[in-house]
Response regulator MprA
Amino acid sequence: MPRILIIDDDETIRNVFQRFLTGKGFDVSVAPDGRKGLRVLDDEQVDLVVTDIMMPETDGLEVVMAIRGKGTDIPVIAMSGGMHAMPMDFLPMAKKFGACKVLYKPIELEDLLAAVQEAL
């Protein structure tokens, strides 16, 4: 069973995504920020990371760069909903840094599932 790590500072999103993906047969871990997410990656075997971009502590771009910096080929799906308030859209940057897919919030659960299946 593939193991997915969801990193998002929004507890509701973490919980909804975790319940949904668990119900689809995935083993799901969650982390509230990039720093804690990177700790999970150090401690657990993970097949896919789904990370928010705009987070306190360590943001999603730093997560993508840290994963790629370790030379691992774990697929990463980057997501964000805060781009409307920013002068720059960071999701294309996440793709350049090594995310295999980017999703704009709000994300329909079936779109999340399709992205996860494609990434794995």
Notes: The CA atoms of residues 45 and 98 lie 19 Å apart. The mean pLDDT is 93.
